[in-house]
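Appendix B. Chain record.
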Amino acid sequence: MNISDLASSLSAYTSADAIGQTARTRAASGSDAISKALGQATERLSQQRESAQVRLSAFGQIKSAVAELQSSSKALTDATNTDTAEEATKAAQNFVSAFNSSRTVANRAINGDGETEGALATDSRARIAANEVTRSLDRSNSKALSAIGITTNQDGTLSLDKQKFEQALQSAPQQVSDTLSAAGQQVEQSTSRQLQNTSNVNRSIGTLNTQVRNLESQQANQQNLIEIMRRSTEQANNRLNAISASGIASYQKIFNL
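Structure tokens predicted for this chain:
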């Protein structure tokens, strides 16, 4: 091999190595850009999933509170739960607590805690559910309850005046039993409608469950794409390194002659 051949071989090796380095740089740059874009997309999906889960939890709490109100309302319609003054007072207190809890949970989900807005602030179905709880007691039943010591406050919650309630039990026990039964029946019917599969609350829960599952599936697909990109980049770099190593070996062979 003459000097000209050696020079040509050296030039070819240098060019191949430079091309290899450039290819690796471009491949790494392209891979980084794609990985970054996929990472940002995955982060957006994660935020959307978290938001959906927060709303799903809020609707779940509303449903749970309504179910508790349904149970306490039904108890008022059973005369065996109001046979004695102690039992009647306990049933009335449970009803008042469940009624107030259902309103509080719904209002917090919509209006927040005073510092941050509620998870369901813009959800019309949540507002409908909250209004249904408020309207579950009509004026007639509210007036009858007030006569036995269960009054409606300005914010829509109920209060139990135990002294007035016990006095009503002593003076007119049948009136108390009938009043509690009528109110319980009305509220139970209202809450039963809210717990039906076609109710606003359950429809929202179903929609959000589907949304969460879809977002989780999309996240999994994004993660798979990122892993595929990582492996492809690794394989490309391995091939380029192999080519570069082959060039170095040829170069050393030439100059070792």
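Further analysis of this model is presented in Appendix C.
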